[in-house]
Amino acid sequence: MKVVILAGGYGTRISEESHLKPKPMIEIGEKPILWHIMKYYSQFGYNEFIICLGYKQYVVKEFFADYFLHTSDVTFDLANNTMKIHNNYSEPWKVTLIDTGLNTMTGGRVKRIRDYVGDEPFMLTYGDGLSNIDLTALEKFHRSHGKIATISAVNIGQRFGVLDLEENGKINSFREKNDDDGSLINGGYMVMNPGVFDYIEGDETVFEQDPLRNLAKDGELMAYRHDGFWQCMDTQREKMQLEELWQSGRAPWKIWK
């Protein structure tokens, strides 16, 4: 199953760093948060990625083009114009980088990679959120219910769209928050069937608005509840929280050696 990652936004809420690079390229432990997300998926056997680019896309492309330089020791022989890479380790990844437009909304970015996904279910997540969600169980849950879309419901303070859930995970409505709401929100780490493309009109479609609302209205949106770690990186403060977890050796998403 392919993994689609939304990585094209401006990241204005963390402008301290995003004026220089796309938010998914902001580093945690000297590696972009995008790398951490991909590394986590890879531990569950998901190694084919489609990354939706927009703002400062060249930064992402250059990172993968020079991946060995970022992850290995290198000797440059300037006299002979040669380069030798030492202790070379390559990830088992196939990475497709797609220009989905500078100002395209999240739904439009998803629609633009339709031909790269094909007629198979695919994973979908944001390029700024880390979790220790069980991806194997998530895929199993998605395949079990036969609906078009599964999103991961996580507990967090009210900042995002709100889910009205039944006990079996069926979503009855998806809407913006209000003061009376609880704390279950869409944390990304989604699974989609190709039918989701029919719910997206074009570049100006915000995925978290009409597509999810209409999927819920049609009974085609389910939630996989995750009660473990989840943290997005919208602000510099949240970036520092993730950095602290990484440096302390307590990062819940680091399940690799």
Q: What characteristics describe this protein?
A:
single chain, 257 residues, two-stranded antiparallel ribbon, 9 helices, 16 strands, globular
Number of DSSP strand runs: 16
Shape: globular
The portion of residues assigned to helices is 25-40%
**Separation of termini?**
24 Å
| Category from helices, strands and their pairing | alpha/beta
Listing every helix as H and every strand as E from the N terminus to the C terminus, the arrangement reads EHEEHEHHEEEHHEEHEEEEEHEEH
Mean pLDDT: 90
Low-confidence stretches: none
Range of strand content: 25-35%
Number of helices: 9
Describe the largest sheet.
8 strands, mixed
What does this structure look like?
It is a single chain. The protein is an alpha/beta fold and 257 residues long. 28% of the residues lie in helices and 28% in strands. Strands 1, 4, 7, 8, 10, 13, 14 and 15 form an 8-stranded mixed sheet that branches. The chain has a two-stranded antiparallel sheet with strand order 2-3. The longest helix has 12 residues, at 236-247.
Helix/strand layout:
Layout: E1 2-7, H1 15-18, E2 27-28, E3 31-32, H2 33-43, E4 48-53, H3 57-65, H4 67-71, E5 73-77, E6 82-86, E7 94-99, H5 106-112, H6 114-117, E8 122-126, E9 129-131, H7 135-145, E10 149-155, E11 162-165, E12 171-175, E13 184-186, E14 190-192, H8 210-217, E15 221-226, E16 230-232, H9 236-247
Task: Describe what is shown at a glance.
With 257 residues, the protein is of the alpha/beta class. Helix content is 28%, strand content 28%. It has helices at 15-18, 33-43, 57-65, 67-71, 106-112, 114-117, 135-145, 210-217, 236-247; strands at residues 2-7, 27-28, 31-32, 48-53, 73-77, 82-86, 94-99, 122-126, 129-131, 149-155, 162-165, 171-175, 184-186, 190-192, 221-226, 230-232.
